[in-house]
Amino acid sequence: MQPRSRPPLVTISAGYISYAHTVLGFSAFFGALILGLCLHYHKIVKNHVAGWPDEWWPSVSATIGDWPQERSILQIFIALMSGPRISLVLLSALLVSLSNPQSFRSKALASTGILRTLSCGGWVYCTSTDLPLIHDVAMILYLVLTPVWMFISWGSLAPQPEKEARATAHDSPAAKLSERARKTRRNTAAAFFASIPFMCLFYYRHRVLEIPGAYTTYSFFEWNLIIQDLLFDLWSVYDLCRLEIHIVEATEPSPRATLGGSWWTGGTAVAVRDKAWSTSPASAAVAQSVASDAKEVDEILDSADDEADKGHLTVELSPRRQVFAFLSDIYVDFLWWTTLTALHPSIFFFSVYNLAIGGHEILLITQVFALGITLIPSLRCKLLEEPSLLVTPRSKPALIGLWALSLSSIATWWIPDPLSRLGFTGLAAGGIAVSQALSWGEAWQKGDKEVHRRVVSWLVGLALSSTAKYANHSNNPLWPFMHSGNGGKQPIGLALAGLSLIELLKRPASSTNTGTGGRARVKATKVDELQAALGMGGLLFALHTFLTDSGTMIAWTWTGFPIKGPMAIPHGWLILASTSIGIATAASRPDFGHHPAVLFFLALCNIVLILTRNWVAFLAAIDTAFLLPLVAFPLVQGALRHHPLRIMLWIWLVADLMTFFQVLTVAYAFVPGGMPFREKTWAMLAVQLLFLGVGLRQAQRSDSKTAASISHLSLPRPIMRCLIALLAAIVAVAVAVSRIRLVDTSTIIPHHAHDGSRVFTAGIQTVHFGLDQLFHDSSRRMADLYSDLQLDVLGLLETDLHRSVFGNRDLTQYLAQSLGMYADIGPSPLGHTWGCVLLSKFPIVNTTHHLLPSPDGELAPAIHAVLDAFGEHVNVWVSHNGQEETPVDRELQTKAIARVASATYPQPFVFLGYLVTKPHAERPSPYKILFEDGRIHDVEPLDSMRWCQYIGFRSLSRVAYIRVSRYTLTDTELQLAKFRVPDITGGEAPLDPSRDDKPRLVNHDHPMVRPEWWFPTHYIDRFASPSEKFSYTPWVYPRYYAPNEEEVVGV
User: Residue limits of the PGAP2IP C-terminal nuclease-like domain (predicted)?
Assistant: First the structure.
């Protein structure tokens, strides 16, 4: 007989843990705030923009991080808070496990809570001054885990089964507490997330616009996050009050630590049996019946599938009406891809100009926010029927309204303010995410045939988007940063969008009616839902990365001159043709995507793309374009079996996070904690393939129909004919574009080819990824400027746009065609650089691409080219060195450049590069390393206002030099120099490479300066500001050069 336990000495409600946690948390932050206001008020409200009285309230970071007194208060109370915190996390996980022992939620909650607690300690005790890396990583981890923690704890931790099973239990105290926990948590979380956009807005006004007082407003929203964070955990009191902590005298004292109890030894089943935990008999019966009814549910769903596939759930339209509906859906999907591909460059326009994270990046997950809002019960019930999760007929007006909202992106091209266009683009992106979830959810209810049709229209919309970019020099004509002056066609796009929306409104109700006649969804396991989200998220990332521009994978294969592989013009049409064939195959045989060989060959193609170049890699690119459309149907079909709004939220989260991490493979130096992602494109592709494999496996396992049984799916004959005609038209247009835009090399002629002067103009400019300061594509403005200045050799920096965050664009397509120049796009995107480009009116004999040493910061690209300039070989070097923050990188990079320049001595050499140094700065600054060790001359040693860009030369005769102000084209001026190539093959003596043969500064009317060598005079403006117009700088007039008077030079 076991000894009876004694009465408890002390009984404590576990709810006190929530109270203790909250009191200590508020004491930590507000104790530091009170102390800071008393001791250092004027100092903690001051920032780099303004101080008191414009700024009169401190931010959280200034309060707790700038002074040791306040920091000590914070650290003391956070240490005291750790015990209640760990207890709160573990007891919350215990409640979840007791309520739903089969759920993974308890483990996720425990692991997330513990990791979040540790990360909090990381940024509290490791200051940004002492351990900046640990501090930043811990802070980022805490910020990332906070939404996860809130999502997992969104409802009640211990939902009452009586409330779900019996209406009579609605008034029980436990049920009331459970409902109160759910409501208070959701309201607090809503207040938390609602503050974030406003906080980002006022941070932007402070950081970028530098408006005094903006940081004070930002600070209030920052403090609100702290308050809501603490209150969110306070509401756990309504759950933890179901538990009590008893302190009793041990019946058998032992020095050994022991653990026991019904739940610990046997789980929830033993706890219920021993009456240690209460549950409803009705709930238990329901739980036991779920497994036994699963087979019956599958049979019902299969029956609904069959009925839907036979057309019993919809009324067939006439053949002509089917075609109109199909074309309307395709155009809507074209706008879907247009909005998606516009969002990322719109966001990173601000990041690039700020050279830092400015808060706009939160819009990267705008689709997640939009779908999260639709999960609010009061809104969700208007879109979905519970518990079947059917899209209701009354959601059609909302669906059409959301599609109309998606037009706000392309309809804002006329708004001058870049931030407004970004806001509307984010709004449109949220609209397309919700509308797609409802539209696809509705299609799934009608059956596999409707899902098949929608997937095909979605893929054709992608092909149309890529074709529109191919025809418009890699720019989508409907993007918000396009306009009539640079290739925009928004009025036409809006007119077609209006016709599509009218068709959707006029489409017979029977063809879009869902009601309760469609196949219903049943709740699936979280694991299945996660796997489906990973698969579709991986597919969305892959399509966005590889197929939104026909030149992206071609850029991956590029190695330079002599050309040994494909070029975007004329070979881009082959990518579009392969994509079209893949879509046609997916339309006729949707079961192909289920075959394991598809994923195997897709993985093989990715490996070949990474490891090889030129034609071999291009074959892999063509195969990738063919294979990706094949897996779309099984992945979409598998995902739509789940809650349509929630699954799309997870899909977008996966795709957006993969896009963000892809950016870090290049931008690792600008994002705290980004270094582990440096040059890890191969890892991103491996994760993408893993996700695709997980999603395909889940689709095969969860779908009761095998791949063989859905092979009979096909589009109606009128739609199939329309599809084939449309895909054929896409290929025909692509072929025509490649032929029309191919530059005839016989028309590429240097500006002074026929006057016998042998003079050429060279220039260098950093173009900031092809977006001007007004947030418009700048390729046409650049072309106009460069043509007017008669440039023959041009180096451009920050030009690698073949990434989704830059729109997968190619500046050289328009510049090369309009200027009539050869183009080398530099190291491929797999080099993980910001890019450099060489444009030349002289034939390019060969080019060598370099990745300069970069142990600390961003990778530095370089092109070493040999040009055939008037029959003589001239070496040209274009490069982009590292930033000021990485002096070791700049030193090593410049030494590498100097070695190449010195190795070509005494051959003619032109340096066009980005150094980041003051003129004549002593070593280890790059200036003397380049010009002394490289044995080249500075084009103008007296120009002391330079910092980034420099021009050097050797064995050429210097004729003229000047800079042209940036105006609003970019953030860096254009540097220009004119050189004369000696006619050595014609008998002219070579120039002494060790000296400048024209050291004397002269006026433009000097006899040694021919009028045809003059720079244009309309850029001369004594009173112009660099931001008002294009004008010469830093001098009013260009500088021209001549030999010393005692020297004789044959010119």
Answer: 758-983
CA 18/CA 244 separation, integer angstroms = 13
Comparing 99-103, 419-423, 853-857, the range with the smallest average pLDDT is 99-103
Quick check: 617 pLDDT over 80?
A: yes
CA distance 852 to 861: 6
Tell me the whole-structure pTM to 2 decimals. Answer: 0.78
d(CA 1032, CA 1024): 9
Cα R_g (the chain), whole angstroms = 33
CA angle 485, 339, 381 (to 5 degrees): 150
Report which secondary-structure segment, H or E, holds 119. Answer: helix 105-125
- Beta pairing, strands 872-880 & 909-914: parallel
Instruction: Please state whether the peptide bond connecting residue 924 to the residue before it is cis, i.e. omega within 30 degrees of 0.
Output: yes
CA 351 vs CA 57, 338, 559, 970: distances in Å = 27, 21, 30, 14
How sure is the predictor about 157, in pLDDT bands with cuts at 50, 70 and 90?
low
Both structure tokens of 407: 């037009």
The per-residue pLDDT for 70 is 76
Answer yes or no: is pLDDT of 169 > 60. Answer: no
- What pLDDT does 328 receive? 93
Same structural domain, 735 and 772: no
As a whole number of angstroms, the distance between CA 951 and CA 957 comes to: 14
Q: Contact, 836 vs 880, CB < 8 A?
A: yes
Given phi > 0 = left and psi -120 to 50 = alpha, else beta, which region is 1002? beta
- C-alpha span between 43 and 67 (Å, rounded): 10
Based on the fold, state whether residues 37 and 79 are members of the same structural domain.
yes
- Give the rounded distance of the alpha carbon of 242 from its chain centre: 44
pLDDT band at 16 (very low <50, low <70, confident <90, very high): confident
Looking at 220, 247, 274, the residue that finishes a domain is: 247
Q: Report how far residue 527's alpha carbon sits from residue 360's, in angstroms, rounded to the nearest whole number.
A: 32
Q: Which residues are catalytic?
A: 880
99 and 205 inside one domain: yes
Residue 295 inside a domain? The answer is no
**Which residues make Cβ contacts (< 8 Å) with residue 901, sequence separation at least 6?**
875, 877, 909, 911, 930, 934, 935, 936, 952, 954
Res 218 pLDDT > 50: yes
Question: Is it the case that residue 748 has pLDDT exceeding 90?
Answer: yes
Q: Which of 57-71, 243-257, 647-661, 1015-1029 has the highest mean pLDDT?
A: 647-661
Give the relative orientation of helices 448-471 and 632-639 as an angle to the nearest 10 degrees.
Answer: 130
- 269 pLDDT band, cuts 50/70/90, is low
Structural domain including 817 reads: 750-1047
Same domain for 737 and 813, yes or no, is: no
Last residue of a domain, one of 247, 279, 298: 247
Give buried/exposed letters for 318-346 (b at 16+ CB in 10 A, else e).
Answer: eeebbbbbbbbbbbbbbbbbbbbbbbbbb
% helix, strand, coil for the chain, step of 5: 55, 10, 35
Both 807 and 884 in one domain: the answer is yes
Q: How many other β-carbons are positioned within 10 Å of the β-carbon of residue 507? A: 17
Considering only 117-131, 146-160, 222-236, which range has the smallest mean pLDDT? 146-160
Do 20 and 58 fall into the same domain?
A: yes
Residue 247 has φ and ψ, to the nearest 5°, of -110, 115
Q: Other C-beta atoms within 10 Å of 265: how many?
A: 11
For residues 827 and 913, membership in a common domain is answered with: yes
Q: Which residue has the higher pLDDT, 672 or 863?
A: 863
Q: 263 falls in which pLDDT band (50, 70, 90)?
A: low
Is 60 exceeded by the pLDDT of residue 542?
yes
231: in domain: yes
Domain count, the chain: 3
CA diameter of the chain:
121
pLDDT digits (tens, 9 = 90+) for 29-49: 888 888 888 887 778 788 777
User: How large is the average pLDDT for residues 766-780?
Assistant: 93
